[in-house]
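Revision sheet: structure tokens.
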Amino acid sequence: MKKISEQTKNFLLYGIDHTIQPKEIYKLDGAILFLVFLFFFLAEASPLPVFSKIFLVIVYLGFVVLSFSRTEVTGKKVFWIYGIQSLTFSILFCWAGTIFMLTTIEKESYKGYLAVLAVIYILAIAAYLFLTMLLIKKDVYNPSSSKKAAGGWCITSFVLLGIGAAKVLSTKAEYTTVIRIASLGFYFVSLLCILGVFHLVKYFAVKKLEIEKCDKR
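Predicted:
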């Protein structure tokens, strides 16, 4: 096993004790299916309705295949399930928010808007990385540390980040108040879900470094 710091090891193993029952995954399959069904109506308002519907189907089927399990999920695979779930929700809500926005701006502005959106997501990921490294350095993922304190810092920081991103996006185009709230709300949820995607990083890191649960102090 490669030599890593105790702080990093505590972060990678944080949450590995969780257990996911198959019925929990099946329930989430149904919830996402319902969400995809609702978004099918929204797809009619997109620039490419047929492509949008195919995209939704592919995302849903991908989620079902990648998260399927007939047995209880434990160990590092828990990170895989949480990561796939978060990624699916982030993609779906980002897609919905974007469709709402595109219905309110001129086609000539599509490329510019999407470019700004991509930059915001990149900045969000960078901010998450910075905050995660800061929390690792402070060793808040140590079993003896207060988990509530770590969670509080995360929630506070991500809420502020979401509000900031929403304000930036709201300056790009003119639209009704209802569409603005709906679209920015979707983006806000999508940005928060990106935090859960970091479970995939933990999954591959634990798998590569062969960190076992018994190594945890």
